[in-house]
Amino acid sequence: MHNLRVSADTVRCICISPDEKQVAFGCRDNTIQIYDLEDYTHIKTLADHSMAVFSLQYSPDGSYLVSGSRDAQVKIWNTQNFELIQNIPAHLFAVNHIAFHPSQPYFATASMDKSIKLWGSDDFKLYKVISREKGYDNHRLSINKILWYNGQLISASDDKKIILWDVSF
Known about the structure:
Distance between the termini: 44 Å
Strand order of the largest sheet: 1-2-3-4
Largest sheet: 4 strands, antiparallel
Strand content: over 45%
Number of strands: 15
Radius of gyration: 16 Å
Number of helices: 0
Structural class: mainly beta
Helix content: under 10%
């Protein structure tokens, strides 16, 4: 139906806004490309990461977009004007995935540094770190994907393990 050249380099991730009006692409050239899903016109290029963008997630209400990069930063972007709201030096290595809790005001980030971090989705503060250094029997290699299911956080890693976490707030 459509063939879009979003970037001259690799596209690493994709995310659709909750109202299904926008799509965001995270690219290896350190940019985020925002497109209109109705007519596929380019809306905006976000270019504040210093390395490839590995993960994107719109907030559940669509008011902001969270990006994670190989530069270990998490950035919060306002979706009305696409200005940077906040930059968080979140991890030691690449931020591989971002997942919002389905009913609580939190989101989680998973990293190549073998940790999962839980952040407030209303204040962007760090609330919990799941890592070996914090005493958890955590993954031994990069954590690549996370998702929330039935109140649990599920993580998948290069160590070939899936771990289900009971997370209390």
